[in-house]
Amino acid sequence: MNALDYFNARLEATISPMDYLRLAQVNPEKYFLIDVRNGPEHVRILTIKDANIIPQQELQERLHEIPKEKEIVVYCWDVWCNTAAKVAAFLLERGYKVKELTGGIAAWKEMNFPVSDVAQDANLSDNCGC
């Protein structure tokens, strides 16, 4: 693969936070954004606003929640995390149109783009009730 092929493939497989925000504002019905991060809930409290939360470890049993007619955008923690890439490959193998959000939630937060506090939005408590 030469450099041009590499960069064209990369552009086809990814979307920047700026591009996603702009495109989703213009045509929100076109996209289905998924937070695929694994890990304890308390470290996944902040999520991109309006993202669907389907951790990679739950993907197989929740596949029916992902619409085939939309463009799927997946994200994980940051540029070092490959969870979103694994999910993208899994979904592509099943006929979905998928892009990875570059930089994950770390890049999104760095740009001060809108986030949601899952605990606050769901009125969750840190109290386990024990």
UniProtKB/TrEMBL annotation:
Residues 27-117 form the Rhodanese domain. It comes from the Bacteria. InterPro entries: GlpE_sulfurtransferase (IPR050229), Rhodanese-like_dom (IPR001763), Rhodanese-like_dom_sf (IPR036873). It holds the Pfam family Rhodanese. Signal peptide: none annotated. This is Rhodanese-like domain-containing protein. It comes from Niallia hominis.
